[in-house]
Amino acid sequence: MTDRKRIPVAVLGATGSVGQRFVELLLGHPWFELRAVAASDRSAGRAYREAARWLQAAPLSPEIGGLPVRPCEPGAVGDCPLVFSALDSSVAGEVEKAFAAAGRVVVSNSKNHRMDPDVPLVVPEVNPDHVELVRAQPGPGAILTNPNCSTIGLVLALKPLADAFGIESVNVVTMQALSGAGIPGVPSLSALDNVIPFIAGEEEKIENETRKILGRLDGARIAPADVTVSAACNRVSVIDGHLECVSVKLRKKASAGDLESAWRDFSAEPQARKLPSAPAAPIVFLREDDAPQPRLHRDLGGGMAASVGRLRPCPLLDWKFVTLSHNTIRGAAGGSLLLAELAVARGLLK
Ligand code: NAP
Fold first, then answer.
1. pLDDT per residue as tens digits for the range 316-328
2. Which domains does the chain have, with CATH numbers?
3. Is the whole-model pTM more than 0.85?
């Protein structure tokens, strides 16, 4: 796709933690051109640079900083056929439906429509064929969803094992970054010197979404995978990057070398199609005793690779390991861009 044919896109919830990542990652994107930013009535009408408390390391481009923030209405964002949603879940459900009804293709990060039977819930390396489910939607637009940020890292690590050996059950304990709680996020007196062993709704999301993603497309529905998943979620004092301790029971016996090879050899449709946001290797296997770590490894593959390490036998299930992924890049904005690229490459978005 040449620069001339870039698809105009809008970002809903552009002022938030995920919205800012979209703005950052869309700068210079070869297929998509950011034309409109939208947020709540608190921000609408102001210049983006004034409405957003810019927290990204890269400076905000003057061009985007000068864009007026629009209200989240289809008529307010021009004729962008593709819309990325980083809206708070209190409003995302209805707003996204209104955009789809107005003929827009919405790629959402919010929980609201993820488990709807006709809505694809996709990690492009894991279940790319599930995007075809949009054809079951009434139209004229469509909604596609990006999973919960912890689920994304987990299913990326599980997929090569599911393909090679089958998975019977999974136990996962997460240590999730503060940026996952949005802006302004967790108050400093709650976060510092502390671990909070509760994130509302998160454990249910990981358990249910994993079964849908690892499930099978069966006509106009997804048959969920027959996998038992148990999740325990914790908020820790890290800025970006969700670390997850995983134990897994496989359906077929496998050695440590078999698991390592499955991860090292893993490559999927985004890599074969050379999609712009696809990392060369979706999984990076690390041999060091103390890896992966959020500060050292969250930016591998431009924040789009999941790292896996600390593989060892599990006395309860078969194997245990640690996986890490960047929650606002692979787990949100970067993952959504990759999903939209997949939809374009498969001809679902003209
Ligand atoms: P956030 O920082 O709180 O941002 C929320 C955005 O929604 C802001 O742009 C806000 O605009 C907008 N908004 C709030 N109320 C609104 C309303 N009534 N009408 C229109 N816009 C409204 O949250 P976030 O962390 O970026 O998360 C955004 C979504 O992505 C959530 O659904 C979250 O669960 C999901 N998610 C987050 C992560 C992560 O790591 N942070 C990862 C995966 C998925 P104003 O600035 O104008 O209030």
1. 999 999 999 999 9
2. 3-147+333-345 (3.40.50.720), 149-326 (3.30.360.10)
3. yes
Distance 77 CA to ligand 1 centre (A): 18
Tokens, residue 83: 């819309």
Distances 60 to 20, 27, 57, 78, 134 between C-alpha atoms, Å: 9, 10, 9, 22, 34
The answer to whether 314 is a known catalytic residue is: no
Q: Sort strands 82-85 and 7-12 into parallel, antiparallel or unpaired.
A: parallel
Cis peptide before 184 (omega within 30 of 0): yes
Evaluate whether 17 touches 55 at the Cβ level (below 8 Å): yes
β-partners of residue 218 are 221
Among residues 29, 113, 130, 242, the one annotated as catalytic is 242
Q: How confident is the model at residue 2, as a pLDDT?
A: 46
